[in-house]
Amino acid sequence: MKPLNPLILRERNIGLQERMDDPECDLQTLFRTYDAFDFVNRRLTGWGGLYETYIRPHLRAQGGVGTLLDVGCGGGDVTRAICQWAAADGMKVSATALDLDGRALAYTKERGFVGQAEAKEGDQIVYRTGHTKDLIKESVRFDLVITNHVVHHLTLQELTEMCEDAESLCQNGVVLFNDIHRSDLGYGLFGLATWGWFAGTFIREDGLRSIRRSYTVGELRRAVPSHWTVMERFPFRVVAMCRGESGKTSKELNHQTLSPHG
After folding, report:
1. Cα–chain-centroid distance for residue 83?
2. Tens-place pLDDT, residues 63-78
3. 200/9 Cα distance (integer angstroms)
4. 178: helix, strand or coil
5. How remote is the C-alpha of 100 from its chain's centroid?
6. Structural domains of the chain sorted by starting position, each given as residue range(s) with its CATH number in brackets
7. Whole-angstrom distance, CA of residue 78 vs CA of residue 146
8. pLDDT tens, 118-158?
9. Angle made by CA atoms 145, 149, 153, in degrees to the nearest 5
10. Residues sharing a CB contact under 8 Å with residue 157, sequence separation 6 or more, in sequence order
């Protein structure tokens, strides 16, 4: 069934700024927001289904071992969740959680996540501040590249560049950009569901702003490269996906790129 276009939120309101994006916002409120994301994202963003449908099969096809890049990771809760699900399935993921905002790295250090994931889950998670272009310069490749709630922050030019960067970093794997599908109903339900909850965080205010900034399925389909797949998923999600064409693993590609003999 064709997704319904919103009547009230007909156009993206890209002029809205989320409170947590303000470099002058209260740091502890931001950190409490990162804490709350672990609860919210596991229940509302549909990553469990994306893991079962796309990530787990790809890892199994590679012998149960793979590399993951989470772009715009925030506090890293989605990265940790995927590593935990993979570990529960007897697989190992070496992950890089990347964010432009240095406060995200400060959060992972303050909460003790840096160095903890390896001991707790048997997986390796590297948290770092930087841009995808930094990784491209380092000639690194990944089996999986994901984003969560990043797309609605981007201008059209930034989204185009991010798609290109993700393809460069994931030539043999799966790229998944998971975001909010702008919807009148979703906006209303989120407002009701968060009323009186998440005090001391930016969850409710920024969540409502995020919905207003987000794409519909049709808008995102027109915005990403034509060979990408854009799909609607429950609840009120839009996912852009690209599959790599190369027959080599990321380990082989990294070796080939870094080898002085070409």
Report:
1. 14
2. 999 999 999 999 999 9
3. 27
4. strand
5. 13
6. 19-258 (3.40.50.150)
7. 9
8. 434 445 899 999 999 999 999 999 999 999 999 999 999 99
9. 105
10. none
